[in-house]
Amino acid sequence: MKEVSPYFKNSASGTSVGWDSPPASPLQQRQPSSPGPPLCDISNAKHVSLKMAYVSRRCTPTDPEPRYLEICSADGQDTFFLRAKDEASAKLWAAAIQAQINTLVPWVKDELQALLAATSTAGSQDIKQIGWLTEQLPSGGMVPTLALLTEKELLLYCCLPQTREALSQPALHSGPSKGSVPYDVELSFALRTGTRHGVDTHLFSVESPQELATWTRQLVDGCHRAAEGVQEVSTACTWNGRPCSLSVHIDKGFTLWAAESGVARAVLLRQPFEKLQMSSDDGASLLFLDFGGAEGEIQLDLHSCPKTMVFIIHSFLSAKVTRLGLLA
Fold first, then answer.
1. Would you give the DSSP letter of residue 5?
2. How many CB atoms lie within 10 A of CB 250?
3. Which 3 state secondary structure label does DSSP give 277?
4. Residue 49's Cα: distance from chain center in Å?
5. Are 289 and 298 in contact (CB under 8 A)?
6. How far is 85 from 76, CA to CA, in rounded Å?
7. Which of 38, 182, 250, 272 could be cross-linked to 188 through a Cys-Cys bond (beta carbons 3.0 to 4.6 Å apart)?
8. Other residues' Cβ atoms within 10 Å of the Cβ of residue 138
9. In a 10 Å sphere around its CB, with 0-12 CB exposed, 13-18 middle and 19+ buried, how is residue 120 labelled?
10. The overall pTM is greater than 0.90
11. What's the Cα-to-Cα distance from 179 to each of 15, 83, 182, 202, 285, rounded to whole Å?
12. Residue 262: C-alpha distances to residues 254, 259, 265 (Å)
């Protein structure tokens, strides 16, 4: 023991050190006694508000297994790509995050409703649906788009509007190029809008069949509400070389008026919706309406893209059929 006794002496006082465990040094007190993960610096932690946040498992980096999910803040300033250990975990995390986001949606609707009420007639801009859609761009890329459906309009935004000015300036993207294929046909839907210069198409995708059913139902119902609210649409046209005015009424049907200057407003043709057998167009300016009978198909030159009028006719017909309770 004489040979090893120096190792059990306190080098400062020379006294013997007891066999009990010595007090831990300050450094030892800060470290766990058992092995474990290193302490993280919370100053480097990242966070994103879940208030109207966007979460998706589609616009994510290439991965042999679909383990990624994307989270984007409502203002579009913060975006994170998170990778779970496997596909099942990614689904669970995405569902849990989306469920929490959904609990905050009623508060967002109330805030936006207050902004709308300050700039519109009471009751004319009630929010029917709000949520994120993923839009396919002509370049083939995908972009989160916030959709806000009111009584009369579908408004699209790049981020959550926080002011009346931002709310009054929706952002529109051009539609996908011809021949483009949606990345998930089963969870996608297209919106086609007729304009004077052609058809504006938007291709959207959602994250679940439930979202797809909700959005498509709300959009169809919105078209029916708009048709019932508008009741009648008129446009200038030419029939057999004569300047005319075509009026389409949801209840009274089709009326073609003479529009020559100095000539009394005379009815040239009047037909109810029930007589319409077929409608079509050439995609440029011509609208074809077939009411059967001796006249057969009539050809009207609308002097602009006829798709707008064609879509209106179809919306009126769909609304009339729904009135009869023939559609769920």
1. G
2. 21
3. coil
4. 20
5. yes
6. 26
7. 182
8. 14
9. middle
10. no
11. 90, 32, 10, 13, 23
12. 24, 9, 9
Tokens found for residue 81: 């790509």
- Here the tokens at position 269 are 């043709």
pLDDT digits (tens, 9 = 90+) for 4-26: 455 544 444 554 444 444 444 44
154 bridge partner residues: 149
212: helix, strand or coil: helix
What residue type is 307 in one-letter code?
Answer: K
Handedness of CA 59, 61, 66, 72 (dihedral sign): negative
Task: Give me the phi and psi of 305, to 5 degrees please.
Answer: -60, 125
Mean pLDDT of the residues in the chain: 81
Long-range contacts of 234-238 (CB under 8 A, 24+ apart): 235/302, 235/309, 236/302, 236/303, 237/287, 237/300, 237/301, 237/302, 237/303, 238/300, 238/301, 238/303
Residue among 102, 162, 166 nearest 132 (CA): 102
Tokens 């009135």 sit on residue: 323
What average pLDDT does the segment 244-266 reach? 86
Token output for 17: 């050190």
Instruction: Indicate the residue type of 45.
Output: A
* DSSP state, residue 213: H
Place of tokens 């210069």: 197
Degrees (nearest 5) of the Cα angle 273, 279, 282?
150
